[in-house]
Amino acid sequence: MWNTLTIISILLVIGAASIRFVTTKNLEHERAALQLTITNAKAAEDRQTDIQEAKATTDTQTKETDTAAATQEGEEAKKKNEETDKTAKKGTLEGQLKVAQQKLDKLNKDLAEIGEIEDLVEKSQNLQAEMAAVQQEIAITKENYKNAVSKREATDSTIANFRDKVSRQRAGQMVEVNAKIAQTFDNWGFVVINAGGNQGINARVKLDVKRDDKIIGKLTITNLEPNVSVCDVTSLNDGEKIAVGDAVVLSAESKWDPNKKPIVEIVPAAAAPAPATEKPAEKPAEEDDPFGLGGDKEPEPEEPKAEEDPFGL
Length: 313
Known about the structure:
This protein has three helices and six strands; from the N terminus they run αααββββββ. A hairpin with a 4-residue loop joins strand 1 (about 180-185) and strand 2 (about 190-195). It is rod-shaped. By secondary structure, it is of the alpha+beta class. It has helices spanning about 1-70, 75-115, 120-170; strands spanning about 180-185, 190-195, 205-210, 215-225, 230-235, 245-250. It has a six-stranded antiparallel beta barrel. The chain has two domains: about 1-170, Glutathione S-transferase Yfyf (Class Pi), Chain A, domain 2, CATH 1.20.1050; about 180-275 and about 285-290, Beta Barrel (Thrombin, subunit H), CATH 2.40.10.170. Helix 1 (about 1-70) packs antiparallel against helix 2, helix 1 packs parallel to helix 3 and helix 2 packs antiparallel against helix 3. The N and C termini lie far apart (about 140 Å). The longest helix is centred in the first third of the chain and has 67 residues, at about 1-70.
């Protein structure tokens, strides 16, 4: 009987040892799986860093595209090549984002397979924290990518507007002009309007003087200043006289037509002031003094001679 009990005890010990051996192997396998999961998480984090660097490179190239908007039209072929490169890099970023998402899905699957082993709870919590960081980085990458796309669209719009503006300037054409006659110098044959370069006036445009929906004269800009413009009166309807406050609008010949190819106009040099017309001498009005020196105490100005230049040029 004692021999039987001894044999049974030995068998139980052997069985227990076998179970412990199998359990130890399973535990080592689980630890190896966890280590592999941690390694994959680290690789995903490194990949996100690479994605951020690629994003930084894309931002730099977008700024370069911004600068390239100021170059001449002869560089348009080069810009098209840059846009093609951006499209290719966009596809690369989308592929990298897809790979990162796949790695995150794999991490989620590995985390579900770890189980509830008590001695791995802390490591599992650390892995979850790393996964949260990876998810946050992915969200930031998506937002940065979205901003990059929006910025590129804005850049394309700016380039288009710039090209449109350059075409209009070279053709001496504008969309609209809204100005008024600020001063008149009838004896000198010119006027001053209250708009200049700061208001978008182009020195090449032709202007009309308008009163009560009727065009009474035409002007040519001879001196463009930041906030005013000096214009020669090139024509004036019979019986009309330009007055302060008359509206100044864009002539039909200078209005921008996007359907027509711009024709670069060569602007002739400004002509000398027109000589005074032959008419009976009359006392010049106080506002006809081009230097603003008129007044009650000042002597009456003499009638200007044709060879005199009101600007001393």
